[in-house]
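Q: Structure tokens for this one, please.
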Amino acid sequence: MAAATDSSLPPLPDLFGNPLLRGELQEIAAPGAIDWWPQTLGWQMAATGLVLWLGYRLWRRARIWLRNRYRREARQRLLALGPRADVAAVNEILKLTAMTAASRREVATLTGDPWCQWLRQQSSQTIFSETSLAALGHAPYKPGFKLPAGDLARLVDEALHWLEQHRDDHGSP
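A: Here is the predicted structure, written as tokens:
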């Protein structure tokens, strides 16, 4: 709709508007900008404390996220194995993860039953079944060792669960 022009409006009468206010109206001045920073010391301290606390929480969350990067990468590697997964590949991913979570000196030399015991000790829950532990401890050293498809799928699931639950010896952030 087009705006009406001045020529299309009817003329105003001589007595238009409120006759009591005629000549006494003054323009209202708009208030100044409102300051977002609190004016009293108590609220300034509370706001500063809140900002510091939020910054600390964000910093801790970032440290935890960065510290758990190795878990996410190991999970992606396990899931990427897919149907071509074998015990040696799962064992390799678990060993790399373990060396990141603990220390290379402690984990790299573990094989067989000591490796299985170490995996058990790193979680408060019993995650690996006896079949899976036996496969992880001995299968990488037996060429051509194959687990049945159901046991292999269970081993991958248990490894994924261990990745989420194991203890990280480098300290919590």
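A few notes: The first helix runs from residue 41 to 67. Helices lie at 41-67, 69-81, 87-101, 104-107, 112-121, 130-138, 149-165.
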